[in-house]
Amino acid sequence: MDRLTEMEAFVAVVDQAGFTEAAKKLSLSKSAVSKHVSALEARLGARLLNRTTRRVSQTEIGLAYYDRATAVLTTAQEADEMVSAMQDAPRGALRISVPVSFGISQIAGRGGAFLKAYPEISLNMVLEDRFVELVSEGFDLAIRIGRLEDSSLRARKLAEARGLLVAAPSYLAERGTPERIEDLSDHCLLHYSNMSTGNIWRLRGPSGEERHVRVGGKLTANNGESLSKAAEAGIGIALVPTFILGKALHEGRLVEVLPNALHEPLGIYAVYPEGRFVQPKLRVFIDFLADAFKGIAPDDWAELGS
Questions:
Q1: I want to staple 271 with a disulfide (CB 3.0 to 4.6 A). Which of 119, 155, 180, 276 is the partner?
Q2: Cα 96–101–103 angle (5° rounding)?
Q3: All domains of the chain, ordered by start, with CATH?
Q4: Mean pLDDT, rounded, for 232-250
Q5: Residue 45 burial (CB < 10 Å; 0-12/13-18/19+)?
Q6: Element holding 141 (H helix, E strand)
Q7: pLDDT, tens digit, for every residue of 156-185?
Q8: Which phi and psi (to 5°) does residue 185 adopt?
Q9: Minimal CA–CA distance to 233: which of 299, 188, 180, 179?
């Protein structure tokens, strides 16, 4: 008899706590399920199940065998699904989570080209500045910017951006331009509440050492573009990624302060749930993004923004 069929019958009996329910699950007769399990035990030379008129339970050997058999069946099913998926054309709905500003300035405009190239795929782009739970919230992919904390996800790096400390010329004329990291304590610092480091800016000191600046001022927001606009209005100094700044730097509405204080680039990643293979619709979308952002340097984003 087929080994996988025997394993499947045994696992079903354990999962369903009996031969009758296992037979229903497998669409087989009860006698056929019993025959498969008996053949398995005979081939292994060991009793895997204790059978009584009232219940079925696993023996000690059966408990150990169940774990391995389940893993084998899962691997076999994934292998079948992988082959099937690789032969299919990319199709279906993709639900993606994207930070608001990055989604508006860098993803939305590129979506048309992707949908034209793959007409059987639809995009549901959810714009919000928080780290969603991909699996439990039903997302296929998320764009994450900065340090990756969740090791249970797979990730592909798409590009890098850079954080800039910026302020309006009017603010600096009134409050003075900070020349050292220590000078920031005399200024209003605009805080991005979704920052992975909390209310701490990690800056680089003159000797390359990491310096921490606690941020707390008149304005806290969970969206980087709102902080950029607040800085333009002269409220204070903001730490903003280059892809948000757009024309503000080039038109002089914002100027960079302490340009040597930030040294760690911001990685831009496509993250997706762990798995043994990637569905075609997701694979082509990740490839599309990687190609779209290929060659963009950390300081090029300001040229590409709104």
A1: 155
A2: 30
A3: 3-87 (1.10.10.10), 92-160+266-304 (3.40.190.10), 163-256 (3.40.190.10)
A4: 88
A5: exposed
A6: strand 141-145
A7: 999 998 888 999 999 999 999 999 999 988
A8: -65, -15
A9: 188
Q: What is the pLDDT of residue 306?
A: 44
Note whether 179 and 149 are within 8 A (CB): no
| pTM for the full predicted model | 0.67
Range list of H helices, the chain: 3-16, 19-26, 30-44, 60-87, 100-102, 108-117, 169-175, 224-232, 242-245, 280-292, 301-304
Q: What is the b/e burial string over 171-210, where b = at least 16 CB atoms within 10 angstroms of the residue's CB?
A: bbeebeebeebeebeebbbbbbebbeeeeebbbbeeeeee
CA distances from 12 to 30, 62, 66, 106 (A): 12, 13, 10, 49
pLDDT at 210: 82
Q: Distance (Å, rounded) from C-alpha 294 to C-alpha 286?
A: 12
* Cα 101 from Cα 137, distance rounded (Å): 21
Q: Nearest-CA neighbor of 147 among 183, 105, 195?
A: 195
Alpha-carbon distance of 94 to 121, in angstroms, equals 7
**CA torsion 299→147→129→134, rounded to 10°?**
130
Contact 244, 254 (CB under 8 A): no
The string over 240-261, giving b where at least 16 C-beta atoms fall within 10 Å of a residue's C-beta and e elsewhere, is: bbbbbbbebbeeebbbebbeeb
Which two three-digit tokens encode residue 199?
């209310």
Q: Determine the length of the chain.
A: 306
Q: How far apart are CA 214 and CA 191, in angstroms?
A: 10
